[in-house]
Write a structure and sequence with these properties.
single chain
Amino acid sequence: MKREKLPLLTMCGLLALIMGAVTGSRAQTIIPDSALIPSNTYYTDILGSSSIMGRNDDGSSAQLPLGFTLNFFGSDYSTFWVNNNGNVSFTQSISQYTPTGPQGASVPLIAPFFADVDTRNSGSGLVYLRNDIPNEVIVTWDAVGYFGSHADKLDSFQLVLRGPGYSIPVGEGSIGFFYKSMQWETGDASGGSGGFGGTPAAVGFGNGAGQGEVLQGSIQNGISGIVSDHHIWFNQNLTPVPPPPSNPNVPEPGTLSLLAGMGLSGAGMLWRRRRLA
């Protein structure tokens, strides 16, 4: 049986939102959907040797070492928890399953897809951790189902988290969200039916005190379709990283063929002129 719902906003988070409204400070930043980049793969298909927590509903891993120090909303963290419900958290684990947006959670967290993941059905995949690369942690919710114990629709998404010692290639970032097929967005206990309706998933970051950044479309119908077959990178300041620009000085293959043809034609004309001279 689903455990009793936890408060969606702690008093701390509610107070921060109220103070933000009074002082005019921005409690929430919206990440535009246009920052998503079309793709249909994980960052890596090497997920890890075994599931981090086995089949469960609302469960979490043990406290885990990051292997580096992450500065997140001005605080440094060296450990984290993987939570079944589509996020990783700092300071403690979290079993909350209905999002009010990541900024509404009671602890700092990074949420590639904060929703009611339920992996108890044997048709569901599991959650995996890969931490064999220095200064990098990868968490994958691989083809996971939704509450209550449904596996008729599955979501596949991945979080890439890097420390300051990682040499980041051009066009990538410190934090990456990767999505393959995303077929559901709401669990039954969040007011959904068949994976939709009610209070859908949220995507983004929260500091545990009412401030955060959320993807446009979070907690709205259709969020699964927005992120499906896309990815997005963020830098250390949680700003989306644009894809690397294509090199305008490199001609397209068709252009190269045309230029080659023009070159041969020009050489032929020059040879004929010399013969006529």
